[in-house]
Amino acid sequence: MFKCAIVGASGGRARGHADAFRFVSRGKLVAVSSRNREKLDGFADEFGIEHRYTEYREMFEKQKPDLVFVNTPPDVRLEVIEAADAAGIPALIIEKPLAIEGEDFRAIRAYTKAASPTGPKIAINHQLHFHPRRQFLQKLVREGGIGEILFVEASSGMNLAYQGTHSLQAISAFLPDHRPVSVFGQVSGADGLADTPKKHFAPDESLASIKYLDADGGSVDAVLRCGANAPRVGDGPINTHKRIAVYGTDGSVRWSMWSWQSLVRGKRDGGEHLYPEEDVRGQAAMTEAMFDWIDDANVVHPLNIESALRDCNIILGLYESALGRRVVELPVEPGDGLVGRLRSVLKQNP
Predict the structure, then answer these.
(1) Is the bond into 302 cis (omega within 30 degrees of 0)?
(2) Are residues 68 and 175 in the same domain?
(3) Of 211, 233, 237, 238, which Cα lies nearest the Cα of 224?
(4) Quick one: 314 and 182 in the same domain?
(5) Alpha helices in 198-304 (DSSP H)
(6) Mean of the pLDDT values across residues 229-239?
(7) pTM for the complete prediction?
(8) Can you tell me the distance from the alpha carbon of 295 to that of 66, in angstroms, rounded to the nearest whole number?
(9) Range of the domain at 180
(10) Which of 271, 277, 343, 350 has its CA 20 to 30 A from that of 284?
(11) Residue 4 and residue 66 in contact, taking contact as beta carbons nearer than 8 Å
(12) In a domain, 346, yes or no
């Protein structure tokens, strides 16, 4: 039985991790840490977690967990990764987004590259990848059900930092054999760039055209929209307005937080699903996939750090594209102070 722990007891994702253990067969949630004692005790009492700490390093040392869920602001991600590495923690699942600034991206990339292969195995918490219906549609596309992929569109009702990375990861999930080679982006609105405790900085709206290539040089274009410019789907709160559509030579698939459709060689299928039911099972499956990776280094988690760094690089390239009014080749070496530069430009030209 794998010992699991949570760093950070605030927010919906911490609750999502804990609740998912109803469906996790190979792990037990044994410890949680939070600097806020009241939240810590309330969370631990609700989910029956015995060991509780106000300092996560003490938790690492005393509990020696196999897997840690990291729910912290983006600007302290690297600090926790370094502490986990020093404590010999085998694996981490880190809340999205992985990084906000180019400086954070470069530092995490450099550290994890230097720490590999002995450092902790790291995945990013994009649990939508493991929603049962998403898994079905991803397998359908992967096995050629809609023929050769021609075009992808994805969107999120919230901005890139809060929910947009889910939609970007969805593009990658349906294009597992492709790599991003360029991005052309536009952004607007500075409200999401205001300083908050969560440090989830992003423009209010973003639009990007991303080009992907496969090993044979075949190209697929994808369009990503995040914010008020994205379509609304379903009747749920704004964080559930995520969707993706994939078009091929023989059909198409569409997925949202509340429904799905497929068109395969003239045959239509589809229906509705409940996000909460899909989400708790997706969260559990994501955790079980990390146990597989801990057991066997060859069974790499699909949400691994390399894929997360690639998607993060697309976002940073999108920002550089918007600021420079040009197509940006990927991967890009992002400049410093992207958030400050975006804030300055968008406040002057909202």
Answers:
(1) no
(2) no
(3) 211
(4) yes
(5) 275-295
(6) 90
(7) 0.95
(8) 11
(9) 129-274+309-341
(10) 271
(11) yes
(12) no
**Rounded distance, CA 57 to CA 68, Å?**
12
User: Are 157 and 193 contained in the same domain?
Assistant: yes
* Percent of the chain clearing pLDDT 70 (strictly above): 99
By the 8 A CB rule, do 159 and 192 touch? Answer: yes
Tokens of 54: 């106000």
The answer on pLDDT for 342 being more than 70 is: yes
Reported as a pLDDT band with limits 50, 70 and 90, residue 347 is confident
Does residue 243 sit in the same domain as residue 327? yes
Whether 39 maps to a domain, the answer reads yes
∠ CA(228), CA(204), CA(155), 5° rounding?
A: 50
190 near 204, Cβ under 8 Å?
yes
CATH number at residue 264: 3.30.360.10
Count: domains in the chain: 2
CATH number, domain with residue 59: 3.40.50.720
User: Residue 10, Cβ neighbours under 10 Å: how many?
Assistant: 17
For 18-39, write each residue's pLDDT tens digit: 999 999 999 999 999 999 999 9
- The C-alpha atoms of residue 29 and residue 168 are separated, in whole angstroms, by 30
User: Assign residue 242 a region: left if phi > 0, alpha if psi is -120 to 50, beta otherwise?
Assistant: beta
